[in-house]
Amino acid sequence: MSTATDTSDRTAGRTVAGPAPAGRARLLRWWPAAVLLVLVVAPFSAVPVPGLLDGPLGSAGSLQLLATCLLFGALATGYDLLLGRTGLLSFGHALYFAAGSYATNLFLLEAGLPFALATVLGLLSGIALALALGSVSLRVTGIGFSMVTLAFAQAGSILVSRNPGGITGGEEGRAAPSDLLPSSLVGIDNTANLYWIALAYLVLTLGVVHWAVRSPTGRVWEGIKENERRVEVLGLKPYGFKLTAFVVAGALAALGGIVHLLLTGGSTPQTTTSDFTLSLLVMVVLGGSGTRWGPMVGGILYTWADHRLGDLAGSGAVADLPAVLRVPLSQPLFLLGVVFVAVVHLLPGGLARLPSRLRGASNRKET
Question: Which residues touch 107 (CB under 8 Å, ≥6 apart)?
């Protein structure tokens, strides 16, 4: 009788305690929606965020920095479609980002086209360039593919800096014509609109990447990353699938270039360099390559740190320090490098793996 009662009590305990973890799991599924809601209403907030932002959350300067962070979080997510999902290490991804920016700007400046049409043509130009260069680059694999993409990127960067026909502006770039842009996207008073555009670009990129990865094509990408030869044995041709990933990632990058054009008010040659792509690589590795949220987190944190450490390096507080501290602290890239090395060493797999590592450590303590 006692045994039966104890068994019944334990069963009842499981029945009562069971829904709690399930309820927490359901709540955790909704955290992206909660974060999105906070981001949407951020421009209406005057809450100060000392240390993270210079001014209130809804101020023009804070929104500009947040919009830039969201933009690069999306760009890193799109780049991870190649690196983390298909196993393609491209050193030329910046080329398609720059293509979207420069092409849109040129359609506005040289052809005088309406903004909407110039945007569509700029996006199509980036897609066409990704299709053309991807079809050539993917004829080789491994390090050969990486070198070919690097060569194309270097050629594009040199072409922009040479300023053929005066259409690229050379090292100074070219400003976007404010009179041809929608009035709602010009001026400090409309920074919130640009912020929402960057947020929409992030949501779109996350949605496209999530849908693509979960599709049958996405499962083939995963197979190519793990063992391309095995995919061939199954009767599939990896080239077409890799080209699809290349073009989708290039299209997302070109769209990001258009958003960057609006945020910065022009096209800059820095976006054509291989250093720009290397920054994307660092963002992805920092956040966690091949994860759903890792590249986005890495892109946002890297961009924020890049801006804030630059402010720190030029501050009076650093200038007054002894030389042994002042010299390294006055070099933002040095500080970013130290942070990157520390994360890679202490958190293999990136920041996205941190929650699972914490749960594992907690479980080991309980046992």
Answer: 113, 117, 118, 121, 122
